[in-house]
Amino acid sequence: MGLVSFAEAQKLARVESMKVDAIFAAATDHQKASPSPLQPMTDREILYLAQKYLHGLEANVGTVPFEERARSERLEAVQEASFDISQGGIEDAGLQQVASRVAGSAGRPSLPLSDLLRVTEAIQRALLEHYARDEDRASLRAEGRYDPAFSAVDGRALPIPPLTVRKAIELYKADPERSNVAPRTRGAYEFRYRLLEELLGPDKLIGSVTRADVREARDIMLRLPPNAAKRFPGKTLREIAVAAEKDKIAPMSAKSGVLYVEALSALFNWLSREEMVSRNPAVGLKGPALDDETDRRSFSIDELRKLLEASAFNGECGYGWLYWMPRLALYTGARFAELLALRVADVVEEDGVTCISISPHENRRLKTRGSKRLVPIHPALEQAGFLQHVATQPEHGLVFPDAVGPKDMITAQNKKMGREIRSLFEDDTLVFHGLRHTFKDAAGRARIPRDLVSMLGGWKIGDGHAAMDSYGRDRLLPVLFEEISKIEFPGLDIGSAR
């Protein structure tokens, strides 16, 4: 407040209405996306406005004068202002003007009379709290806290806005960090966060979520069976968990459970980082332990031979995507989606090396930034006739047009690939992605430097930029071709589509 005269103190409430614009302009306003003015304000929203207003007053309070006379004048001014505010009541026009400006700064430029009076009352309480504290300061007493609604408010940190679970999840999903999430991944996220919203309570204030709440949400999620909503339509998640246990239906896999727990932790980590919660109730929250034996593994030579000689993959059904996909994965280390969505234009020649260009386009999003890369075509693929296959496809089309169907191509054909592989092997750790591990193992046996293996496969291991700098950008592709050509699988004949 600063040093004021007795006469000025009588006008202090009116002066505050002029100060509030500057105070709120300097503060980050989490309420700009608040509901339409036609929607009544909640008690928690109004309390937050008053808390934020008090924070602004406390942050701009003047230094207590050293001279006793000046302190006495300040004390008298504060007491007079406090009396004026307490006597004015919520019908006071000046106080209503302050309340209206506070609400307008928070994205509520017009209020129904009932809301205006409620905001005015809250602002009055904030002013009285401010004057009571300033009276302590002017009297050289220990500064007290008088109204419980403002006990945690000071001039240092902005009060935490009243976010509900639903609103917090909406803000998290809208964060720019998640703007490039692939549609398929986004769909999975949406489902997980719908579950979290139901389990935590959509209208529960995010700041009131406790450790017990997140543990309960985790435990219920881990008891849910696959396709829970389809199996038990019309039931709540808690009811589904109980019914599934009663009917002895196995819960979701441990890997799926880990993804749900990670979604819960990621939400609160982000809220904590953005200072929307004062504490993180999900910190260190653990999902189910994963059994190493159930992880995806590499293929042995015998298993590769069995895979490539199977009727679905040996050319009996044609030389389309089913024929080429396992062979490409084996000699490039690329992911399923990266290969299936290859365009003819993605097969390029640079620095005298024929490569597959793995980059994002309308039919393909990449998993990570490091996934964008050029992978030289292994001599074994060229000998098997891959380049001839590419040459027979339309210039502006896909390398595997036979994979296109009425449904999402990547999802549908990934499931088909999984079914074909499962029909050959009882071991459920043998999946298409295991070919990527097989490539990496073969690169290790060939003693290819780890940073170059990282560049070939799009892994995060190593420093691709350092590798590029050490070999020279103009020599990098020839070096990559030389290294990838060292990969071999003794005793394996991948056949030929020539």
TrEMBL record:
Please tell me whether the keyword Zinc-finger is annotated for this protein.
no
One Pfam family from the record:
Phage_integrase
The terms under GO molecular function for this entry are: DNA binding
Record-linked SUPFAM superfamilies? DNA breaking-rejoining enzymes (SSF56349)
Could you tell me which PROSITE patterns the record lists for this protein? Answer: TYR_RECOMBINASE
Q: Keywords assigned by UniProt?
A: DNA integration, DNA recombination, DNA-binding
Task: Please name the InterPro entries in this protein's record.
Answer: DNA_brk_join_enz (IPR011010), Integrase-like_cat_sf (IPR013762), Integrase_catalytic (IPR002104), Integrase_recombinase_N (IPR010998), Tyrosine_recombinase_XerCD (IPR050090)
- The domain of life is Bacteria
Sections of the chain in a coiled coil: none
Would the keyword Cell cycle turn up in this protein's UniProt record?
Answer: no
- Domain (Tyr recombinase): residue spans on this chain: 294-486
Can you supply a Gene Ontology BP term from the record?
A: DNA integration
- Give the protein family: Belongs to the 'phage' integrase family.
Name the PANTHER family for this protein.
PHAGE INTEGRASE-RELATED (PTHR30349), PROPHAGE INTEGRASE INTD-RELATED (PTHR30349:SF64)
Instruction: Report the protein name in the record.
Output: Tyr recombinase domain-containing protein
Source species, please? Answer: Rhizobium leguminosarum
Tell me the lineage of the source organism.
Answer: Bacteria, Pseudomonadati, Pseudomonadota, Alphaproteobacteria, Hyphomicrobiales
